[in-house]
Amino acid sequence: MSLSESLNMHRLALCQALDEEDGERLDALLPELRSADIAEILEAILEEQADPPRALALLGRLPLERRASVLGHLPGDAQLVLAEALSDERLLTILEEMGSDERADLFNLLDEGRRQRLLRRMARREREELKRLASYEEGTAGAIMTADYVAIPSGMTVSQAMMRVRQTAPDAETVYQLYIVDDQGRLAGTLSLRQLMVAPPGEPIDALMIRDVIHVPVDEAQEAVARIVARYDLLALPVVDADRRLVGIVTHDDAMDVVESEATEDIHKGMSIGSLEDGVSRVPLWSLYRKRVIWLVLLVFANLFSGAGIAYFEETIAAQVALVFFLPLLIGSGGNAGAQAATLMVRGMATGDVGIKDWGKLLGRELLVAGSLGLTMALAVAPIGIMRGGEALALVVAMSMVTIVLFGSLLGMCLPFLLDRLGWDPATASAPLVTTLIDASGVLIYFGIATAVLSAA
Amino acid sequence: MSLSESLNMHRLALCQALDEEDGERLDALLPELRSADIAEILEAILEEQADPPRALALLGRLPLERRASVLGHLPGDAQLVLAEALSDERLLTILEEMGSDERADLFNLLDEGRRQRLLRRMARREREELKRLASYEEGTAGAIMTADYVAIPSGMTVSQAMMRVRQTAPDAETVYQLYIVDDQGRLAGTLSLRQLMVAPPGEPIDALMIRDVIHVPVDEAQEAVARIVARYDLLALPVVDADRRLVGIVTHDDAMDVVESEATEDIHKGMSIGSLEDGVSRVPLWSLYRKRVIWLVLLVFANLFSGAGIAYFEETIAAQVALVFFLPLLIGSGGNAGAQAATLMVRGMATGDVGIKDWGKLLGRELLVAGSLGLTMALAVAPIGIMRGGEALALVVAMSMVTIVLFGSLLGMCLPFLLDRLGWDPATASAPLVTTLIDASGVLIYFGIATAVLSAA
Predict the structure, then answer these.
(1) B292/A369 Cβ within 8 A
(2) Which residues of B300-314 are buried (b: 16+ CB within 10 A; e: fewer)?
(3) Chain A CB contacts of B266 below 8 Å
(4) Chain B residue with minimal CA distance to A275?
(5) Domain residue ranges of chain B, discontinuous segments joined by +
(6) What class is the A285-456 domain?
(7) Where does the CBS domain lie (chains A, B) (predicted)?
(8) Of the candidates B244, B284, B311, B428, which lies 20 to 30 Å from B388 by C-alpha distance?
(9) Please, what CATH class does the domain formed by A34-135 belong to?
């Protein structure tokens, strides 16, 4: 039985036991399900059945530790619904069991009054840590890091460090990469548990540790953090403050989540869709409408430039209506080629493959490639021009094709760089924007060439 | 100094030392650079300067272990260039130092004769393992897994297992997740090193281990593998054969690489660009041209349907040339809305958020959202219709807008599901394809409505 089959079977059995309020069966089934899977079922209960009491009852059947882990797997809106249905006391016990990064994320969702009430009931140390982690700006290393790492004071021996690892093991997010800090809390070095395990027990860790530790400042962008974790195959990446004091670590699984969600965001931006908080099947209809309508209406007005171009050339068109035959084809081709060029650049910039310093070199390459593409497409379309309206029309269409594809590709390539220079996200240079700009230019180029050639003929 | 600044500084110094053939300085600089960074410099030497001997000289200055690790970080084409310049003997020593997954990848790039020569010089056990790993189909769990995992025979005690971990540590890809196998080599359970460390030394591991291990078959698609690693926050995912025998593990860093490259591939497909072997700034011009031209030319011919539609309605157009004014606007808007819908579905399907079972529910949602979008855009464009040609034209344009946006969105939503049903990759339902199909339908809808309304008026 495959993983997803067994998951579906378990899910069905659980839903049935829930419907029948069969407590015994629930208690038998729940230990067989993983937190991520229970979270998915809870989410479905909350969204399809809009039944928070039922979700709470299911959550309440789990041991405390799993309650925290399941809650951590839920998207923000579902967490908030459940948190609002829980008493301060019950929420507090769950918060205490959560990882420090997930705790801070949930805390940030609550309203100000509740946050103050919860903070007052926490121990001082816990309170300070939570306030600190909750204060980092979203999208930075600080917002995705955890404070549950293993820090070893400089000067310990291997066996002392090993003892420290054993003590910290239950609470730490990872015990496999250790960070050595000096008496000021500054990051002095790192050591993997693997290295520690094979080292002589009496050896000072300062002699073993790697001093040149890859690390990031707390305000580093999360995309950059994820890229560093991926590039150097790290288990965790230490995060330091302005004084190089160690304040947290970003673990590989959180970095992977960033890579996934950044890719989704870039893909949506590439189609002029604002970023969605949740999957497309679950996000509210109103927000789906809102995320899509803004750009669509803006593009309607941008498209009016094409209309204006057409109005300007109305005489040429009236004189030879066959010109209209090629209009969608020509502006469509320019738009497609331009969207391709923009997509290649935007993704290259997002993965760090392309930088602004490569601009000159890439411009030369794009000129060559787009020129060849334009010529190929002109050759493909010229015979149809002859068939529809003779050689003069074929010439106009072929010339327009090369010019429009070349212009469209260069525009598509330059726009992401230009936006980046202006301090905007290059992913905003989306296919619809590029296409609309090229549509308008394409109209002018096509009818401009047509007017020149046909009036000369 | 930030990570990328220090990296750039080191890179510059290294390139200078290379130019001046300053061996002493090179030997001082190389230990300060990480394998991923040296690989990037080697790649630049190979591609910008096309100078394999120089790259080989740099590689030769590294200790053997790093040579293997740097080679593993290079893209396939660069690995092949270097491998072809190395003698069998030197290549063999490097291959022996590489991780088993990277070794198999490089091996698969070599020509048949060389593979046979190399295999003959290997020890029997090594040879069998390499042949096995190299035989798995690309894009499956087998192709990205490593055979360097820690397997603990069932029946050992905690202290025996610990001893085994210490022995295996130098060669294993990760020692932090251990896999317990029975005497047939079948996967019986798993245990993290963390759990092992805090357990009593005399305890049998069979009493401690988790028996319900998440695992995948060796022919599982790599996207599914990566999704499971991400979903359950795994350090590594065990891979089993048809008899449930453990044959390898996929580690978190390899899963992350899959997530990144799959996202890039989907983004490129979304713009009708074939998958590129390498970053856009480095891929050869000819292959960039080829990956883009096929779809562009196909779309040229698809666009001819729009032209045919226009030819059919030529009389209507000749009677009211003002209709052409709104043509790019209407078909552009339909294309944009359709591309948005297609993008949302394709990405939702890729991340596992949307399945074919959600189709009915999503269709209803899309009808509502697209209907609202169409109405909004019709309201935005109607006043311009009145300005340009009176109320009849405004009515035609508004009705066409609603119909085209609704039709385009539904087409964009259904196409990915349809392709999936046909066994194709839904990402092929790219924006240019959706746009082109909607262009043609838009022409028919617009001029059809125009002919009906204007001839009635």
Answers:
(1) yes
(2) bebbbbbbebbbebe
(3) 263, 267
(4) B344
(5) 34-135, 151-251, 285-456
(6) mainly alpha
(7) 145-207, 209-265
(8) B311
(9) mainly alpha
